């Protein structure tokens, strides 16, 4: 029988929510890694029992975790190939090591990026924001990090190497941190072209490679950001999230700092589709798994008031690929609600009907088993939710 | 053997109790103690000091015998009471919050 596994990263640990295909009754496990920030967890589509987790702390730095049994047990995978573990069988910590590539052969000089005050600032690794397992190889996985760069592991997360063509392609000195840091938060692998990858950085913009990560180009034409000196600059835009329906990989939807955008040509150009949204500020955007023109966002009041407008938690759905939006409210609080929904905290399953899940800064995880027509709080008292992913299980 | 007290989260990560003992060959310094901790508990690499620069993480401090050793040179000797095992070497997370 089919089922789903919802992976929830919070400010104080990870939680795993499981249900059968009806998605009405839920089992909750956790907290895993109690007390640590879990920025993201994601399962491999090649081996659904393999899940990667980014465990991080301002005190103790970055720890990568991997489960090979669907989240029941976890390991730090980092014993380098050919090396033994300690006599106690403990791993060696290499999986936590993210070092920018500065080698003259493959890397780029570690330059500087723009700081909040406009001065240049050195690149410094802080944490992993997003993990994206390969669509074809269980041992290959990508990590988007702060300060913005893309890393790849080909050994199941044991060791990580930067795809330095992105950071070094030339516009890096113009990138700058958003309020949450200069993070590479979105990694989208094109299922129709294994050499094509999209990434997004706050605040630099969206980028694409067509050669497996060796070279990259900004794809921000059509974005207009009034908060930067040149509103239509090649880079500098605060892109919050990008989503794609895998069945139509040339069509992308973007929630920018302000504006909901759409591209029909793999990001070569964008048009605004905010339409009748009550506010076009927000963080999440996602696409229905079976209907490529059905898109979901959660409007947030503004960049200074990071909560939903009017005290009402409303998911907005467009069935027309944008511009025309309807509020989805059944089962969601419609008074005295002032939560935020962060950029990686919405996911869709591939069951029929499409299930949608999102987590809030107030610790609720809401789920819909009918494409958003109605919602239920699966859990409502977790720590603030940083990320939500879902695995559809057969 | 050098007695080391780790903060709660690092105990969890290393699957150990509050105090561990590590063998520090040669001269006992801040650096050699952390080297020994990382050798015995490799999953702690990068959590006490940076993987690359080997600098102490900014929100962690080193104490022993009531003294703050955090700003001492990594190659400074630690108090004799730590070397003899009479006193533990403390790795402490900076306090944040109210």
Task: Give keywords.
heterodimer; A: 394 residues; mainly beta; Methylamine Dehydrogenase, Chain H; 4-stranded antiparallel beta sheet; 1 helix; B: 98 residues; alpha+beta; Ubiquitin-like (UB roll); 5-stranded mixed beta sheet; 3 helices
Explain what you see.
The complex is a heterodimer of chains A (394) and B (98). By secondary structure, chain A is mainly β. Chain A has one domain (3-81, 91-393): YVTN repeat-like/Quinoprotein amine dehydrogenase (Methylamine Dehydrogenase, Chain H, 7 Propeller), CATH 2.130.10. Helix content of chain A is 1%, strand content 38%. In chain A, the strands form eight sheets. Chain A has a four-stranded antiparallel sheet, with no helix packed on it. A four-stranded antiparallel sheet of chain A has the order 9-10-11-12. In chain A, strand 9 and strand 10 (141-146) form a beta hairpin. Chain B has one domain: Roll (Ubiquitin-like (UB roll)), CATH 3.10.20.30. In chain B, strands 2-1-5-3-4 form a five-stranded mixed sheet. The mean pLDDT of chain B is 93. The interface between A and B is medium-sized, with 22 and 27 residues.
User: Can you tell me the number of structural domains of chain A?
Assistant: 1
Please identify the structural class of chain A as seen in this structure.
Answer: mainly beta
Q: Specify the CATH architecture of chain A.
A: 7 Propeller
Q: Could you estimate the helical fraction of the residues of chain A in percent?
A: under 10%
- Name the beta content range of chain A: 35-45%
Helix-strand string of chain A: EEEEEEEEEEEEHEEEEEEEEEEEEEEEEE
Overall morphology of chain B: globular
Determine and state the CATH class of chain A: Mainly Beta
CATH superfamily placement of chain A: YVTN repeat-like/Quinoprotein amine dehydrogenase
Beta-strand content estimate of chain B? 15-25%
């Amino acid at each position: 029988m089919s089922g789903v596994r919802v992976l929830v990263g919070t400010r104080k640990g990870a939680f795993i929510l499981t249900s059968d295909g009806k998605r009405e009754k839920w089992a909750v496990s956790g907290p895993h890694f109690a007390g640590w920030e879990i920025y993201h967890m994601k399962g491999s589509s090649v081996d659904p029992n393999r899940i990667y987790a980014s465990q991080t702390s301002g005190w103790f730095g970055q720890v990568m975790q991997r489960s090979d049994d669907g989240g029941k047990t976890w390991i730090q995978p980092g014993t380098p190939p050919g090396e033994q573990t300690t006599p106690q069988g403990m791993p060696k910590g290499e999986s936590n090591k993210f070092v920018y590539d500065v080698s003259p052969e493959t890397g780029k000089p570690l330059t500087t990026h723009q700081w909040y005050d406009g001065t240049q600032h050195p690149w410094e690794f802080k944490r992993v924001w997003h993990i994206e397992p390969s669509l074809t190889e269980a041992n290959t996985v990508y990590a988007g990090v702060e300060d913005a760069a893309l890393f790849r592991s080909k050994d199941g997360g044991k060791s990580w190497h930067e795809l330095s063509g992105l950071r070094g392609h030339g516009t890096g000195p113009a990138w700058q941190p958003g309020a949450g840091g200069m993070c590479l938060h979105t990694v989208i692998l094109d299922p129709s072209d294994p050499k094509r990858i999209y990434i997004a950085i706050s605040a630099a913009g969206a980028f694409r490679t067509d050669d497996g990560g060796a070279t990259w180009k900004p794809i921000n034409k059509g974005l207009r950001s009034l908060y930067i000196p040149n509103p239509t600059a090649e880079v500098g835009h605060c892109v919050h999230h990008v989503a794609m329906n895998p069945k139509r990989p040339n069509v992308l939807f973007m929630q920018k700092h302000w504006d909901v955008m759409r591209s029909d040509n793999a990001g070569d150009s964008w048009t605004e589709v905010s339409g009748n949204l009550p506010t076009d500020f927000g963080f999440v955007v996602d696409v229905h798994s079976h209907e490529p023109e059905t898109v979901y966002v959660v409007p947030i009041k503004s960049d200074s008031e990071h909560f939903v407008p009017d005290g009402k938690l409303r998911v907005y759905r467009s069935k027309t690929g944008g511009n025309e939006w309807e509020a989805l409210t059944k089962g969601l609080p419609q008074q005295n609600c002032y939560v935020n929904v962060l950029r990686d905290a919405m996911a869709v399953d591939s069951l029929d009907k499409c299930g949608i899940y999102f987590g809030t800064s107030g610790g609720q995880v809401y789920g819909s088993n009918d494409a958003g027509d109605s919602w239920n709080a699966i859990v409502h008292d977790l720590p603030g939710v940083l990320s939500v992913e879902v695995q559809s299980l057969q | 053997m050098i007695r080391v007290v780790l903060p709660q989260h690092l105990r969890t990560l290393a699957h150990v109790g509050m105090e561990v003992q590590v063998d520090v060959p040669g001269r006992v310094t801040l650096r050699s103690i952390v080297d020994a901790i990382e050798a015995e508990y490799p999953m702690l690499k990068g959590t006490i000091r940076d993987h690359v620069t080997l600098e102490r993480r900014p929100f962690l401090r080193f104490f022993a015998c009531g003294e703050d050793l955090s700003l001492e040179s990594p190659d400074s000797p630690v108090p004799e009471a730590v070397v003899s095992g009479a006193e533990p070497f403390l790795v402490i997370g900076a306090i944040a919050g109210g």
